## 1
Amino acid sequence: MRFLSLVGNSFGCSASGERLVSAARDGDLQEAKALLDYNPRLARYSTFGVRNSPLHYSAAQGHHEIVSLLLESGVDINLRNYRGQTALMQACQYGHWEVVQTLILFKANIHRADYLNGGTALHLAALNGHSRCIRLLLADHIPSIPNLCNILKNRSRSDETVSEFDEGPADGGVTALHMAALNGHVEAVHLLLDLGASVSQITVEDGTTIDLIGAGSTPLHYAACGGNAQCCQLLIAKGSSLTTENANGWTPLMVARSWHRDWLEEVLSQRPVDQPRLSPSPFLCLPLRSLVDIARECGWRSSDMASACLDPCVVCLERKCTVAAEGCFHEFCTHCALYLCSTNSTSTASHGPPGSIACPLCRHGIVSFIKLASTRPISKELGRTSLSLPFCTCSTEAQESGSLETPFCKPDFHSPLGSSFRSLSCQGFPSVKLSPGLCMGAPDTSPCLVPRSIDGSLRNRLVRCSSRSSLRRSTSQSEGKRWLCSFNQSVGTGSSCL
């Protein structure tokens, strides 16, 4: 009897999980919120076969509010599908920078590689030329200091490892710069070069990767194959060699000829006499790291409205000011400051080093943000569980007792911006008592739900009708139990209805 109940309830959980997947894919925030309020463990549901979770679907479609809702429900932020991809990878693949920003603030792991070719979220962002996603992925690795560009430039001249964010190339030694150069994404190539990506990194022969250009190729070889002249010029200006030969004995010029990129003949033939001076990438953003640290500590989605604070943010006029720009000391809320840093695509400022963003009030170059004295850290507590999805605990025994006790577990300490969402220790919530009729999906009409404003005769008729309907339900349930008992006895004695 209990086995049949568990099987039936597992189908119910599967149906609710599919509803949550549909809500996450379609961007239905209210539906997703209602389902997670009903059962927070539904966030761990994954589809059959491809094993995409609701977090994968919402990230791939760019629904950042549902992504935040799922993360606050305790889902593992680094869940993988059958290809080994995380939600961060799928958001970077399709260029949803708001989702990437949310995942980075929740400390998603940017070093995870997929199962197919060892590519990370940075590789996917560079492959598709999403410069805003690249900037957000590397926010923790680019310090908010004024002389960052000079430090990276000096390291590149001394042939040191300038790529502090290098987590290892993909299969075949392919780096994010290789992918951006091959596909002709000029802005992504420019940003990666300004952030210290190596122009001398070569691919390797691993025996599995199909490399039509050849092992030992530099990003310039890949740019020559892609055929974008601007990418080639950027790499040459950053010191890429024109005479490096790969395993096939090809120089970048020979690669361009083999792929019929005739317009690159002049660019790859010889290095220009007057080396052009490159301006900083418009997607370089120095104050992003300082702001990300503040947002993780103190939150970034405060609901304080303008009427509740004396000095609201001058940008949105809805939230109280939590951060100030270092230098001009103009105050903003964390949400608006994050939006300013994430969407900025110009490096021009009245006063400030390369990579600073212009203050929207005085055009002063902002290098970093500081936390205001009135800004307090957020509470380190999460009200939902991160445990895996189990069967429902509904059973006939619980229905006979008249109530259903559903224990949940709550971690003693949990950071809502943590990356693993693992519970340290569990303590039980107070038991939640549910009606058995609600669990079985039957309507439950009780006398206490009848409005008191109606007259006495009508109220008595409603009470009698509800009592007769409850009597019929109890009679049908007892008959069903007797039928199941007789069925179990016939199976146990080996009798046959035939």
## 2
Amino acid sequence: MSLVMPEPDASVLARRADIVRALRSIVPGEAVIDDPDGLRPYESDGLTAYRQPPMVVVLPETTEQVSRILAWCHAEGVKIVPRGSGTSLSGGALPLADAVLVGMARFNRVLDIDYEDRLAVVQPGVTNLAVTRAVEDRGFYYAPDPSSQIACSIGGNVAENSGGVHCLKYGLTTNNVLGVEIVLMDGEVVRLGGRQLDPAGLDLLGVVVGSEGLLGIVTEVTVRILPRPEGARALLIGFPTVEGAGLCVADVIAAGIIPAGMEMMDRPAIHAAEAFVQVGYPLDVEALLIVELDGVAAECDHLIDEVAAIARANGSTTLRLSADDDERMGFWAGRKAAFPAVGRLSPDYYCMDGTIPRRRLPDVLEKMRELSDHYGLGVANVFHAGDGNLHPLIMYDANIPGQLERAEAFGNDILRQCVAVGGVLTGEHGVGVEKRDLMPEMFSETDLKQQQRLKCAFDPKLLLNPGKVFPTLHRCAELGRMHVHHGALPFPDLPRF
């Protein structure tokens, strides 16, 4: 492992048997796992390049159990790593050798569906796709749809602020969550938001969504459900150059058209996806756009004509319109299978996640080609093109010494380029451990310390998911110190608490 994680606390490891015994008194039965074979499935998440068996795994099934686990660990100074389905691609659920991994898979029930208020109340272990399955018979669905939606959990979506192919029009997780129940590190159970559209007070819900397990463990989520649009059609558009496809994306948005989804794949990704699902992707193009328009029939027809004209103006060579819903879903099946499909091209791949201004897409792709030559590693590109979210898949072989390190360096240079052109380090996968050491590329030391002060407000002992997000985690006491000038505090007349 090239990644440096916090050194395990020997005093905690020495108490392992007592910790296991205490957890079994809270969660009886087989829900506490401490044998080596039982721990192995939890040693990594979707970022499989990094592995570390946890000290112990506990699988609670009630909010009370989560509260008691966290309160006990808080009192005893034991670290906690929350885990959903383990599909995180940034190492957000990577265990620590001296931490309790709290798996939320048993929180798997849909608690309430309110069609009048268009919401569903679910436990965090419910999978993303299961929410849509629960409401589709009444013509509703849950809009955010990550490619891993068949497996990823709503709790993990909240932690990482996940997106998906339809987030361009309908928003990320943060735009579709109305409320959460969250257990803080000291065991306190707090509700943020709820069934109402706009709760009063500070937007603490917005703080929790995307907090990557640093602030608490979510035990219930209230999500927005939407009625299915009257109709939806998808265009499959091929281009002789990636640059032409990128310019088409920018021109579609500039024309005021907001598709339900707009995805791009380059030649390696196209060929891998077509071999995997065989949906009829054109194989003689360098880039492929999938553009979905939805709404009433007249609106769809009009927008299809507009997008087709823009595509032709940017040099498209093929254009295919879905004839029905089955064909439309076939178009998306290839895109959603692109990540596993690339596994046919390489023994291993490193999936990156950065976001750039749409107009800079040709520049960044050219830079990627240069980096690919420099590092001697192939790359297949899949994009949420409409919002500039890139997912380069760097191909390598972990069995060849040095290739993982080259893949990491290649990925880091891609993310540095994203920031250099005015973008950000992540669009939806989160920072986790993957981008942790790149945070200073985007944030100043003052920025990072302010973010850490927010963590300290929720987790003063820094026990929740340590080693993630922040390249250097200061103690809360250090961040709370006041500057003393010539022996005098600032504003000496103010009371100090």
## 3
Amino acid sequence: MLGAHEQRSEVARLLAQISAEYEAAQRGLTGLSYGTSQHDFITARMEKMGQLHNQLQSLVGDVAIAMIAGELPLN
């Protein structure tokens, strides 16, 4: 079981990784490649975000999605 400090560190790591995956997906939308490769890239980023969300939810419960929303830029 994680101590309070380790849990906060793990939450911060997961939120940073989710933010990085989101940014990569956003860049994929405006990148130079088009078609299937672009779609596959964005899909992979979104699937990874889903996995990370599940990990975060196991640590903090239902508040996970609110934490993620607070981390992502509003465009």
